[in-house]
Amino acid sequence: MKTPPFLLLATLVFWGWQSGFLLAGAIMGVVLESARLVKVRWDLTEEDFRRIWNFCVLLALALVVYAFAANEEGGGLSGLLQSSAAAATRNAGLSATAFLRWLPMTLFLFIAAQLFSERGAVPLSAISFFARRRKGSGTAERHVNVSYPYFIVCLFSAGIHANQGTHTYFFGQAILIVWALWSLRSRRFGIVAWLCALAVVMGIAYAGHLGVNQVRQMLEGYNAQWIARFMRQRTDAALSVTSMGQIGSLKLSPRIVIRLEPKNGGAPPEYLREASYRSYRSLKQTWHVGDSRDEFTDLLAETNGTTWVLLPGKTNSSVVNIACYLNGWSRDLDAPDGLLPLPAGSGRLEKLPVFTLKTSKNGAVLAGGPGLVIFDARYGPGATIDSPPASTNFDLDVPTNEVPALDLVVSEMDISGANTRQKLRAVQNFFAGKFTYSTWQGPDKAARTNETVLGRFLLNSRSGHCEYFATATVLLLRQLNIPARYAVGYVVHEKSGRGYVVRERDAHAWCLAWDDQAKAWVDFDTTPGSWVAEEGKRASPLEWLSDARSWLGFQFAKFRWGQTNLRQYVLWALVPVLALLLYQIIFRRGRRRRMRPKTGISAAAIFWPGLDSEFYLLERRLAALGVPRQPSEPLSDWLARALADPALAGLRTPLQELLRLHYRHRFDPAGLSNEERETLARETKTCLDSLSMAAGFLRADRA
Asked: Does 431 lie in the same domain as 573?
């Protein structure tokens, strides 16, 4: 069925208005509606339609690939993508919505080919693999008119836009749907009943529209990425909740979270720090950032937009390429965010495609941008972005209830009168010689009455994981009047190809000690070095399967977040194919341009066996006389209704005989004989002449 006049024009203008492509929508609408006035038609074959369909599909694929993998502002393609390319790095859904919003444009050539073709319909085999198979088995070709499906696609695409809190889309959609349904309404019911039923449906739809909007507003009050926070480990710059005091074994995952490769043949950094903390709360076994004034401050990128200077003027001797995920979510940016794992002494980050970068006095670097970032970190010994020990003595603070155990340990080490370097060596030897590493914490290691978790570790069990060692070391150094902080991040030790991989089980906690001579914080780790080997022993023999899946996920993430040149490769591969298809569509040899016939049925308009039946001329003549056939109404029922008029009583027998011949011509595999075919044509002409004479009586009766 064809759409009513100017419906596609109005729909495309509405789509353009809602999607920000008003001019494009108006131009496409005018072109499509001009098919009603322009008489020129193209003789398009099934192969032509298939090429046009393939061209539209590949064009849609090229556009969505570009949006899906782009991360620059503006989006490119002369503004066609507007800012959606940059937005695509913030939300995977935006890439899909961009694809859906462009559907009227990507499918425009196909609908235009139908409207300007001789047949005015599309061979089903051109767009359906199954129809193509059935055609190959001898089944007759079927044609479809895609005007109404295109109308539905345009309405759907118009709804893919930013919600401005108005109801213009709903009411515009309602008007267009009423317009489309008006010509299809059933004549068995009056207009008033039809309008009442439509009003009820629209009312229900509007109530549902309001309900969905309220649900959306409610969900927007929550963090859209809260589920991801439960699925992936995420470091909080303000708080670190330890597992000290918990009974049982730590659950350690082999999932790869960081990939790095040293540049210039250098060695990898031993530690990748994400954050450090200064205030320990003994009752909850948690570390906090300390001073509430330690907020993040924004950094400005250099002119290229991907270079960020953390320490101006610092000479960086080593370079490492780091690939890591941003597992958090920023409501302000509406984009992923997270702390970057950086080597100690990082002074410059290059090729880092993030929107914002912030640093804190505790040495944390918070990035907001794509979910995966790959960048070069330049680092070296010396100054760090951490603030020096605070005048508020946060870096020397020790909880009162931990002091007795710490004093006993200090007495056991017997380091009275030692200098700072000697104290550090004594603490290192103390933990190395008298403590063991263990991820299992049994009931015998739990704190007793009037005993803290850390006190039992220092004085009794002397076995625990890195959080025990790091916490005990920080507080012990502070008790020895050495400023110290609690640091969290990862240890780098597992080589993979030319680089290294870091797994979740490589997450680590250690101590930062203040070097008063160098005026810098240095890593001071007292956890027994055997912990790395012990964690490796727990690796599953099938870990290579997990690594393969992780590698595939990493490759997809690179494509997804624009950290690869795959977009250019895909586009360069698609452009020649699109050009070839377009050339074949436009310049195929043998295509003829024809004028639409003014009367009669063209031989080229035979879509299926029997469509050339002259009985259709009778149907049109009776419809012109006021007896139209209803949608989906069988010919037999329609003819019985038409012959109920007394003015047509004399034609009842010949018309019924013609209907019988028409059905045989349409559906009988054997068809009609030459004599019967001539009878159908001859008797139809006779009945048409009789209808012309009876037309006056029919009009008089209706008057």
From this structure: no
Average pLDDT of the segment spanning 654-683:
84
Helix (DSSP H) and strand (DSSP E) numbers for the chain: 23, 27
Asked whether residue 199 is assigned to any structural domain, the reply reads no
Are the C-beta atoms of residues 513 and 484 closer than 8 Å to each other? Answer: yes
For the chain, give the mean pLDDT: 80
Q: Note whether 537 and 619 are same-domain residues.
A: no
Percent of the chain exceeding pLDDT 70 equals: 79
Same domain, 575 and 444: no
pLDDT of residue 228: 41
Number of independent structural domains in the chain = 3
DSSP state of 457: I
How many angstroms separate the first and last alpha carbons of the chain?
31
**Encoded amino acid at 424, one letter:** L
Judge whether 206 lies within some domain. Answer: no
Q: Do 527 and 431 lie in a common domain?
A: yes
Tell me if 276 is assigned to some domain: yes
Cβ proximity of 352 and 373 under 8 Å: yes
Using CA atoms, how far residue 538 sits from 251, 463, 543, 623, in Å, is: 11, 18, 10, 82
pLDDT tens, position by position, 3-45 = 888 999 999 999 999 888 899 999 999 999 999 888 888 878 8
Q: What is the dihedral of CA 87, 88, 93, 94, to 10 degrees?
A: 50
Q: Is 337 helix (H, G, I), strand (E, B) or coil?
A: strand
d(CA 693, CA 691): 5
Structural domain for 104, as ranges: 7-172+566-587
Cα(8)–Cα(29) distance, rounded to whole angstroms? 6
434 and 509 share one domain: yes
Euclidean distance between CA atoms 338 and 102, whole angstroms: 32
Quickly state the pLDDT bin for 231 (edges 50, 70, 90): very low
Q: What's the whole-number mean pLDDT along residues 693-703? A: 57
DSSP string, 389-434: PPTT-GGG---GGGHHHHHHHHHHHT-TT--HHHHHHHHHHHHHHH
**Cα 641 from Cα 629, distance rounded (Å):** 9
Does any domain span residue 208?
no
Q: Is 49 helix (H, G, I), strand (E, B) or coil?
A: helix
